[in-house]
Amino acid sequence: MKNIFNKGNTDWYTDAFKAFEDRLNGQTSSEIHKLRKKSLRSFQELGYPTTKHEEWRYTNISSLIDNNFEISEPYLSGELSQKDIEKFQFHGLESRCLVFVNGHFASELSNTKDITENVEILSLQKTIDQNPDLVSPHFAKYASINDQSFISLNTAFLQDGTFINIPESVRLEKPVHLLYISVPDVRPKASFPRNLIIAGRSSEMTFIETFAAHKEGIYFTDTVSEIVLHENSKVERIKIQIESDQAYHIAALQAIQERDSRFIDHNITLGGALTRNDINSEFRAENGFCELYGMYSGNQKQHIDNHTTIDHAKPHCESNELYKGILDEKAEGVFNGKIFVRPDAQKTNAIQSNNCILLSDQATIDTKPQLEIFADDVKCTHGATIGQLNEDAYFYMRARGIEKSNARKLLIFAFASEVVEKIKFDPVREKVLEWFAEKLHALKPE
Amino acid sequence: MSDEKKHIEKLANQEYKYGFVTDIEVDAVPKGLNEDIIRLISEKKNEQEFMLEWRLKAFRQWQKMEEPHWPNVEYPPVDYQNIVYYSAPKQQKKLESLDEVDPELLRTYEKLGIPLDEQKMLTGVAVDAVFDSVSVATTFKDKLAELGIIFSSFSEALQNHPELVKKYLGTVVPYTDNFFASLNSAVFSDGSFVYIPKGVRCPMELSTYFRINAADTGQFERTLIVADEGSYVSYLEGCTAPMRDENQLHAAVVELIALDNAEIKYSTVQNWYPGDKEGKGGIFNFVTKRGACRGFNSKISWTQVETGSAITWKYPSVLLQGDNSVGEFYSVALTNNFQQADTGTKMIHLGKNTRSTIVSKGISAGKSQNSYRGLVKIAKKATNARNYSQCDSLLLGDKCGAHTFPYIEVNNTSSKVEHEATTSKIEEDQIFYCNQRGLSTEDAVNMIVNGYCKEVFRELPMEFAVEAQNLLAISLEGSVG
Q: How many domains does chain B have?
């Protein structure tokens, strides 16, 4: 276990924690704060993962460590206007929208009206203050603070985020949009949004997470989401990451699936200098279903790392995973998809597929699809391909008079669409394609 | 069903067929490892100064290294001071023909099913048999010598062709490579050396048979094969070991070098003693095998059938340095009872238009764990490189595990890499179909498994393919039900 963690400048966060504590006035004796302190200790003990750490083999975070990020401050009224967040909204989509600025809830920008009674969609901080009993049975119970540095760091500095609690048999037709906007400062800031989503029996909901920047600049987002899916519930998440080109984005998601539950995740990465997603789902009972879709597109020197784990701990569960990447210029992509099939998890059906296109000789991809299987009556497959655009299709289009650069773009677009198409809300899907097209625009003609 | 179970139980209780000890006086050094032991080994082998220095450098390097623990296997710590690093049948005089070999030794080989003299006449296979650590007889040497082919034990090659050994030794697997390769470099006692001169196509399959006999001895052999421009050679390696309760260590190194337009085909059938049904005893097989396609259009092909050893830890790799070079890896790894295997390959594409194919078939039964671990790396300059990997796992029983850890690293746009993996079990309806047609469940499983491995078996030379099929059947016994 030597060398896989590096103490780096963990002291920086130790000092920052003292200042952070002072700001919390009055809260320091609460249960939540005890958890924060425990997490900080855990972070101090762990330090940062190095590339010797198997899970961080291809992602070097030394530039992140070298930045001394300050802890972001609460939102001040009037900092941003409705106009500023306009461009991140999905036109034509009826949704409630919770807006967070630098990780802090901005109620004046949010739209929480017509939320059905007894459905709780709240800022996490407010819930912790007013109704801690709602939060405590699940909070920080699934995302482990003991072995993952960035989860412990997030938990140490946790302050705000979203709390959603859908009662039994409630079906939310309209999605919930969580918009996380970072406003970069001259001194780089770090924010730690934290989400807890509890879907009651036979409930259903979709939420959209958008991570965006108000303007270009360096900052660090370390976010953690925990999702609990009770029996027969269905939760769909659509995550769209369009952070600043200089931003650091590290996100962890832990889903817990009870019997007959269904979890669907769409993970779209377009922005950020360094992005790391850890998406884990665990089947706690039979007949669960999990779908993970991902699309990432990188150019310049972007580094995009997606790690997924599906833990088939119980029999008769099914999972389906599809990740697609497009890498141009000096972008680096990492994909690691793990499928665990525990002893006795018979009748498991797991499919995983990872396709990647490299558009430039400087771009690199490191992929590691991994199967660990301890049961015999299972069907598991994984496939990974790395290649280029289909020459025949390209020729076909060229023969019909389509310009070089357009033909290329069309092909790339078609490649990515397979994943984006899975988003069922038209306005969201169109907006994602629009953002993606903007990014493609920067593509150099060959 | 109960009848079937009894039948299966009977088969499962069948002991390791090759577990006998041969009583031959051995010449061994004391247990333990230090510079004196290395000097003693070197002296016994009458080696030149450069060899001793190389061994000592490796030993000093080894002392600084830590035993790796990343493979997906578990085993009790190995006491490196409790191993006899050199053991040789006591025979000082030089052997000219098979008649001079100790008849006891020849009988051992007969039991193993490789009667040297018979093979010599019937199959045309030249055998360099390694008994413990010293090569005892090399057949067909004269015939090969006519073509300029050097096929001899490593020690003989050191005496007769030191310049060749010096030129190539450690150039593919340096003594600093890894813990077990360094250990091997320090203490290796013998092995095989093959040199195929320019433009020569080796007319017969070359073969070595390894066998660990004396208790407490580690087998540290080293094989070096050099195929000069435009040459071709097919090399077979087979391994067995007697039954012992304690674990024995086997840390071999194989280096292959293919120059321009040369081709090397290396086939292994490994059935070291796998330990008993409770997982007691067995060989720890920690092997470093690597080939370098140095030249333009060169080709290296690894085929392995791994059915033995308590623990297998090996990754036959190919460095594709020359343009248009080709690397292949075909593997069947079967684990039963408490066996553990962590095996796979590395294909490092460095030259342009290089191609590699990986076909790995893992079969786990009983309480065994079987892992495929592979790396496909395409360097920036390896334009138009192509890789296809397929790794399938078959699970027999619900107590075993099958794992895949493929690493794929691509650094340019003109290359294509495909990787596919599946995991499955034998379907009940397949068995039912066979039963219906009068095949016992045991035979049905054998047939299905053999069909599953066919892609790999057809890469094996004829004699080996038959042996491999039988071996698979023996190893699978008792796993059905």
A: 1
Token couple for B10:
């009977």
Give the per-residue SS3 of A138-190. Answer: CCCCCCCCCCCHHHHHHHHCCCCEEEEEECCCCECCCCEEEEEEECCCCCCEE
B440 in a structural domain: no
Is residue B285, in this structure, part of any structural domain at all? yes
Q: What is the pLDDT of residues B57-102, one digit of tens each?
A: 999 988 888 888 877 778 888 888 887 777 665 544 444 455 555 5
Q: Which of A232-241, A324-333, B338-347 has the highest mean pLDDT?
A: A232-241
Q: How far is A334 from chain B (nearest CA, A)?
A: 9
Q: Does residue B110 form part of some domain?
A: yes
Beta-carbon contacts of A313 under 8 Å, excluding residues fewer than 6 positions away, are A282, A283, A284, A340, A342, A345
CB contact under 8 A, A361 and B380: yes
The domain containing residue A412 runs over which residues?
390-446
pTM beyond cutoff 0.80: yes
pLDDT of residue B2: 47
Which pLDDT band, with edges at 50, 70 and 90, does A287 fall under? very high
3-class SS letters over A227-277: EEECCCCEEEEEEEEECCCCCEEEEEEEEEECCCCEEEEEEEECCCCEEEE
Query: For testing the chain B interface, which of A309, A372, A443 should be mutated: the one with the most B CBs within 10 Å?
Result: A372
Q: Give the model confidence (pLDDT) of A33-52 as tens digits.
A: 888 888 988 888 888 888 88
Measured between beta carbons, the chain B residues lying within 8 angstroms of A344 are: 398
The partner residues of B313 in beta bridges, in order of sequence, read B286, B342
CA distance B26 to chain A (A): 42
CA distance B351 to B332: 28
Whether chain A has a CB inside 8 Å of the CB on B382: the answer is no
Distance CA A273, CA A248 (A): 6
**Residue A373 parent element (H or E):** strand A364-373
Tell me which residue in B399, B414, B421 faces A381 most closely, judged by beta carbons: B421
Please state the domain count of chain A.
1
CA-based torsion, A421, A423, A424, A429: positive or negative: negative
B404 touches chain A (CB under 8 A): yes
| Residue B332 in tokens | 């069947």
**Which of A386, A391, A443 has the most B C-beta neighbours within 10 Å, making it the best mutation to test the interface with B?**
A386
Asked if the structure places residue A439 within a domain, the reply is yes
Does the pLDDT of residue B20 top 60, yes or no? no
In this structure, is residue B15 part of a structural domain? no
Q: Is residue A146 part of a domain?
A: no
Q: What is the ipTM metric for this complex?
A: 0.75
SS3 breakdown of chain B: % helix, strand, coil, rounded to 5?
25, 35, 35
At residue A125, φ and ψ (nearest 5 deg) are -60, -45
A423 confidence band (pLDDT: 50, 70, 90): very high
Cα–Cα distance for residue pair B295/B315, rounded to 1 Å: 22
Question: Is residue A401 included in any domain, yes or no?
Answer: yes
Asked if the structure places residue A406 within a domain, the reply is yes
Task: Indicate the average pLDDT of chain B.
Answer: 79
Give the mean pLDDT of chain A.
88
> Does the structure show a pLDDT above 70 at B112?
no
Task: Give Cβ neighbours of residue A441 (< 8 Å, ≥ 6 apart).
Answer: none
Query: What's the number of CA atoms in the CB half-sphere (13 Å) around residue B90?
Result: 7
CB contact under 8 A, B419 and A383: yes
In chain B, the residue whose alpha carbon lies closest to the alpha carbon of A385 is B418
Is the Cβ pair B408, A388 closer than 8 Å?
Answer: no
* Chain B nearest CA to A369, separation (Å): 6
Q: How many CB atoms neighbour CB A444 within 10 A?
A: 11
The percent of residues above 70 in pLDDT, for chain B, comes to 77
With an 8 Å Cβ cutoff, the interface of chain A facing chain B consists of 54, 343-344, 346, 356, 358-361, 363-388
